[in-house]
Amino acid sequence: MTPIFEIFDKPCDIFLGIYNLGMGTQQRNNTIKNSNFMNHSFAVHNRIQIADIKRRYLSGQITREQAKQEAAPVIERINLKGAEVSKRWKRKFSPQTFIGLMR
Description:
By secondary structure, the chain is mostly helical. It has six helices and no strands.
């Protein structure tokens, strides 16, 4: 079975639901461009960034240390927002870690 990161060119393909593998690159790029990809919510934007880092890390394009450095600002944003939301709703906050996000 082919790993998912080898099937899709970009991590946003997965989140936009573009599963048609026969779709050409130009058609896929037009679909992404017309989907208001950059206007997604905060959480989706972070998930896409983490998925891209994870894909490159698992495929061997970057090392663990490089992946940690690239993911650090994203993890920090996730944890800041999570702490804010958990405080608002009076819930216990458990921060996200690099290891947890790369699973």
